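Input set for joint prediction.
Command: fold jointly, output C-alpha cells.
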Amino acid sequence: MAQGPTITTIAERAGVSIASVSRVLNGLPTRQETVRKVMAAAEELGYVRNAVARSLKSRRTHQVAFAMADVGNPAYLAMLREIQPVLKAAGYRLVLHSTGAVVADEIDVLHSLGERYVDGMIMVPLRVTEAHLQMLGAARAPVVVIGSVPEGTPVDNVRADSRTGVRLAVDHLHALGRCRIALVNGPTDTVPGAARGAAYREALAELGLPYDEELVEIGDFYRAEGGRAVAALLNRVSDVDALMCANDLIALGALDVLRAAGKRVPEDVAVVGMDDTDLAAASWPSLTSVSLGSAERGRVAAELLLDRLQDGEHEPRVVTVPPRLVVRASTTPEPPAVRDVTGAAGQAATQSRSTEGGGTS
Amino acid sequence: MAQGPTITTIAERAGVSIASVSRVLNGLPTRQETVRKVMAAAEELGYVRNAVARSLKSRRTHQVAFAMADVGNPAYLAMLREIQPVLKAAGYRLVLHSTGAVVADEIDVLHSLGERYVDGMIMVPLRVTEAHLQMLGAARAPVVVIGSVPEGTPVDNVRADSRTGVRLAVDHLHALGRCRIALVNGPTDTVPGAARGAAYREALAELGLPYDEELVEIGDFYRAEGGRAVAALLNRVSDVDALMCANDLIALGALDVLRAAGKRVPEDVAVVGMDDTDLAAASWPSLTSVSLGSAERGRVAAELLLDRLQDGEHEPRVVTVPPRLVVRASTTPEPPAVRDVTGAAGQAATQSRSTEGGGTS
DNA sequence: CGAAACACCGTAAACGTTTACAGATCCTTG
DNA sequence: CAAGGATCTGTAAACGTTTACGGTGTTTCG
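C-alpha cells >
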C-alpha cells in the first residue's frame, strides 16, 4: 500500500500547477489542452480524491450519523432502512451509533458532534433528560430527533402518535364486542411505556368502558417477560377477552402462554401487538398490530435533516406521523388476507420486501 | 453555530503556543502549570478536537465501513449487531453501506476506499466477480470479505459452511425417519443457492438416498415465492414427508401452504429453515433451522480487521465458521423448549435479546 | 563560576485539498 | 503594432491538527 497519488503528483506529471489540477477535477472552466493533460495523468496514476483533506477545507464531511439504542430493534431497523437510501441519494454516508441502553452514551454521542466528523445527526433517544435538552441546545451540528421533545427545543422533531395508535386498537377490539380489554405494558418510566399506559386509559374512557386496575399488567418489552406478565394476568382475572400488548414481542409471549393455557386466539382472547414488525406477519396466528410508522418516521427525519443541511436557518419543524392498524388473524378469525394463500404470502413478502438473499456461503 | 474554538483559540487564551496545547491534549510530558492553563482554557471554551484535521495529519480516520446488500436481511443484520460493539470497543466508528442488489455498487464502494474516509472495510459480496477480485487486489485499505473468495486473494476471509449445514439438516430429518426429503431452493445462480443445491445432493448421497429431480423446486428467497414453490411441489408429488428450505422465509411460506393444504407439521411434513433468524423462533410451529453463524462471522470479521489495522503485514487469513442445527417444533412434535412455557419464552428472549424497547412515542 | 545536561516550550513544516489574487498569455481591436 | 480586455494559470494562504527541531531558562557538576 504505497503512498497514493495526490494532486501534487498529478501536477508534476501533467506539468501544471496543483491549482489547475484541482480546477479540472472540480469541473471549473479550464483550457481543453490542460483538461486533457490532467485527466490523462489522473487516469494513469489511478488518482482518487482524498475525502479527509476535502472535508477539512470545505467544512463538509458528507457524513450523517444515526444514533439509537440498538439496531436489532425492529422499529429502529425499519427507520434505518428508510434513512439509508434517502441519505445515499443525496450523497451522504451513514455513520451508525448503537448506543445501547445507557443514557450516558447518548449524551456522549451528542457531544462527539463537536468533533465535526459528521454534518448532522438523526437521533432516537431512549428517554429525554435534562442533559439531552441541554446538549441539543448547544449542538454544533443540526440534529433531528425522532421521539417527542418539548416545545421550544431548537431541533427538528418527528413524532409518533401512540395515543391514537392505542385508541385505534382499543376501538377495534371494542367493535368486535370485547369489553374486558387488558393492557400488557412495558416499564412505565420509559417514554413509550408511559405514553401507552396513558393512551389506554383515555381510549377506555372515550368508549365509556371502566378503567380496571386489575386489567393492567406491567412487565418488560421482551417476549419472555410478556409471557410472564400475561400468565400473571390470567391467574388474577378469568374473564379477559382481549389483550392490548405494548409491542409485538410482548404479544408473541402472550400467544405462547394463551396456547399453553388452552385458550383459542382470537375466539376466546383477541390479541393486538404494537409496532407491526416482521414478526407480526410471521407468527401464527398472525398478529394484528398497530404500526406507529417507524419506516415513515425514518424517511421524514432524513428529509428534514437534508433540508436543514441545505438551507440551514429556518424554524425548527415538528412532524407527527399517524399510526395505522394492521388487522390480522389474532383479532378476527378470518382476515381477508389469510384465506387466500397467495394473498397472504404476497402481503408478507411486501412487508419484508428486501429481506432477501438467503445469507451467504 | 458560531465558528467553534480551535487549538489556536486555546493557545491565545492560555498564553501558550499551539504546540503546547496539542501536547497537553495528547498527554505528552508538560509542566504542570501549563497543563493547568491549557485545560482551564479548553474547559471554558468548550473545546472539542476536530476529527477531520486529526485524521488528515495522522492518516487514521478511526472509521471502518461495513458493506452488504441490505441491512434488512436478518443474516446481515446479525453480522452488523456483532460487528458494531467490537469496533466501538476498539474506538472505531461504523460507516454503513447498503449497496442493494446491484453488483456495480459493490465495486463502487471498493473504489471509494481510495478516498480514505475509512481505515478498512468489511464486505459481504452478493457474488464474487472478476471485477471484485481485481479491486480487492488493488484496494487502498485492508478489506475483510465475508463469503468465500478464491485462494490467493490478498484479503482476510470469513466463510460459512453451508455444505455441512445442509448435511446436518438432512441427517436430522433422516434420523427422524423421513425419506422423501424435498429441497426448496432459491435461484441457483446466486452463491448461496448454488451451494445449497450442491450440498443437498451430496447429503442425500452420503445417506444412500436417491436423488430425485422431482423433489427439487426452485423459487426465490422470499416468503411468497417459497409458498408458491411448495404448492407446485405438492401438486407434483404427493408423498413428500420433509422440506429442506434454503432460508427461513421460504420455510415460512411453506408453513402457510402446508396449513392451507391441511397437512400437519411436523407429523405429516417436517420443515427445516436456514439462517436461524428471529422469525424461526417466532413462527408457529417454531421452525427448526440451520444457523450458519452469521453473528459469529460478523464478530470474527471485525476481529480480523482490527488485527490487520494494528499490525498490518501478516499473511491473509481464512476462517470458516461451523454451522449449527437449532431444533424446534417444525421437525419434532415435542421439542424440550416448547413444553415449558417459561423455557420457550426464555429461549426466544435470548435469541432476540436486545430486540428491546417498544419503539418510541 | 562556566559549561554541560536537562526540561520545557515555540517556530514552522507538513497532511491534501480549495480558492483568492495577481501574473501570464492570448486574442481582439483601433 | 500597441493597447486593452478576456482567458487561463500559478503562487500562496487557509482549513485544524501533529511533530521535528532548535532555542531558552534552569539545574548540576567539575
